[in-house]
Amino acid sequence: MALEDSRRSSALPSFLYKSKGFKAPAPAPALVPAAEPRINGGGGGALQSSRFLIPSPDESKKIAMYSPEFYAACTVGGILSCGLTHTAVTPLDMVKCNMQIDPAKYRSIGSGFGVLYKEAGPKGLFKGWVPTLFGYSAQGAFKFGLYEFFKKYYSDLAGEENAYKYKTFIYLAGSASAEFFADIALCPMEAVKVRVQTKPGFANGLLDGLPKITRAEGVPGLYRGLVPLWGRQIPYTMMKFACFEATVEALYKYVIPKPKDECSKVEQLGVSFGGGYIAGIFCAIVSHPADNLVSFLNNTKDATIGQAVKSMGPVALFTRGLPLRIVMIGTLTGAQWGIYDAFKVFVGLPTSGGVSKAPEQLTTPLPLPSA
């Protein structure tokens, strides 16, 4: 298959999103018509189609898959997904960050909430919500929008057959590529958020916290935690997307008693939330040591990663604040996939994931040449 042809077609997502009995909406070029069949195996081989149309489930919306409108919708869905959920769990994040920085004072989840409430009242539990909202909205835009882009891009590069065979590697590569850029967008707001939440009296929020860091350390001060942020978020996002895709596929295959295209949108969104929650548990475990490092480095001036590891110790690095983070990230990830897919359904796009099918084959034998 020529490279330029493969870029216009869909490889991996065609068998993830294909629905039954679809008739392509006009104009046909928006969804790419089927190409001429190709022949495998010479005489007597099977006739195989090399193109698949990817429909939107709501034809009245007519957003073509992998069009600029599609990527714009995924970007907006990512903004809503990550921005709203991270802001909603700010109290949990406050307790988690303070448990990582001062475990003697914040000994447990319950006592941590009690200390924060006693010292700052209800408002204190939401300290840092503005940089959280801005930072994670920017991250979500890149995370989800670029994941959809890179997933298709790598699928097209691999070719239809390899994209199906190595689909998990496609998910991992696409999510890692997307998160690399997403963390660059997130890092400045994360630096402000952590210091506002864990350094009493440092700043009230974004408006005074951001200029305070830049005056003292310059713009590089906002990116001191970028490397550990990559170390936390890239494995987290790889697990988040690959585990979600595999979990949703397994749920439709082994748990849900009917095919995805026969499920209602409410049922499909329930699967998205469940798959996201399960993925979130694994995300929290994989990324937790780096999360501890991010909190330590953003709270301790001029500290290095080696000093942070030595100061915390290996056990604390992997376990301090982990139970709370599992609850927080599981809920967060489930809600994110639910919001993201709800927005996709709202604009007329299919929900994410589903039963993966090998490229379709027509078993009609080729006619033998006449004598």
Automatic annotation (TrEMBL):
Positions annotated as Solcar repeat: 69-153, 166-250, 267-346
Matching InterPro entries: MCP_dom_sf, MCP_transmembrane, SLC25A3/Pic2/Mir1-like
Gene Ontology terms, MF aspect: mRNA binding; phosphate transmembrane transporter activity
GO cellular component: mitochondrial inner membrane
SUPFAM superfamilies reported for this sequence: Mitochondrial carrier (SSF103506)
Membrane topology: Multi-pass membrane protein
Function of the molecule: Transport of phosphate groups from the cytosol to the mitochondrial matrix. Mediates salt stress tolerance through an ATP-dependent pathway and via modulation of the gibberellin metabolism.
Record's protein name: MC family transporter
Source species: Selaginella moellendorffii (Spikemoss)
Source species taxonomy: Eukaryota, Viridiplantae, Streptophyta, Embryophyta, Tracheophyta
